[in-house]
Each structure stands twice: as structure tokens, then as C-alpha cells.
Amino acid sequence: MKKRVQIIIKNNDFKKEHQGKIVSVSRGYAFNYLIPNGIANLATKNEIKHYQMFSEIAKKQEEANSIIIRKIKDRVEQISKITIYRKIGDNQLIFGSIKEKDLINWIYKYSKIKFEKKQIQINSINNVDINLIRIQIKQNIVATIKLCIIPYNT
Q: Which residues, 6 or more positions from 12, have their beta carbon under 8 angstroms from its beta carbon?
């Protein structure tokens, strides 16, 4: 009888190994702990095909998502500047301040791209000035846009 068996890891908790990786472990460890606790499956031909199929699907989906994210970044970078008109008071200060919601509405109105409030990073803007805003499209992908605040009095 074999002392070691081949298993396929089901989740990433097992010894910092990745899901779907084939590992050789002792027979008792596999049948008494890993398989009953749902950490691994026995590596049969069908299980190996199953995990390979799902890994291929995941790779294709990741590639499609990266293409979509690249297109969104290109569309956002086509916006050279955002211009917002506000009433001003004394010392070139605007009434209220510019918030993420204002920028989200402007971007959606002119480019039909929806962002969430947490994706837009701005400092407190309460005066007439040219500022830079950062839009975090994905975790490592950031676009920077100029924000121009133009005064008007009525």
C-alpha cells in the first residue's frame, strides 16, 4: 500500500499553496484531516480535469476584466479637465465645497462611466483653484484629472 497520496487543494489555507495545486501528502493526513475538513480532494483524473477547466475559465475571465479596465482607464484619461462653476464669496472661497458626489455626477453626465465615492480621492476643496483628483479604477490602476473651479456671481 502506498504511503503517500496525491491530493488537489480546494482552498488557499493549506500551507500557503494555491487552489487547484496537486500535492503529495501522507495517506493518514489526507484521509483523516484534509479530505473530511474540505481542504482537499483526492487527485483523480476527473478531479484534475475539473480544476484545470475552472482555472482556464478564471484566466479567461481575468483577461476580459483587464481589457475592460484598460478601456475604462483610457476613457477616463480622455477627459483632460473637469470644470465646475460655483458661487464665490469673500477671499475667493466658494460656497460649500466640492465633494466626490459632484465629480461622480459630472463624469457620468459627460462620459457615462459610473464610479463609487470611495474610488475618487480629493482633498478638501473650498476655494477657486486648479486641483488634481485621483480616480482609482482598480487597486493598482489610478487616473489623474485636472479639476478647474470657475467662479461666477449672480
A: 18, 19
Residue 22: domain span: 4-67
In the chain, what are the helix, strand and coil shares in percent, each to the nearest 5? 40, 35, 30
Same domain, 49 and 61: yes
User: Looking at the 3D structure of the chain, how many domains does it have?
Assistant: 2
Q: Residue 78: which of 148, 146, 150, 149 has the closest Cα? A: 146
Q: Kindly tell me the burial class for residue 30, based on how many C-beta atoms sit within 10 Å of its own C-beta (0-12, 13-18, 19 or more).
A: buried
pLDDT digits (tens, 9 = 90+) for 92-147: 788 888 888 988 998 899 888 898 999 888 887 878 888 889 888 888 888 888 98
Reported pTM:
0.63
Q: Give the β-pairing of 81-87 and 142-152.
A: parallel
CA 138 to CA 23: how far, in whole Å?
33
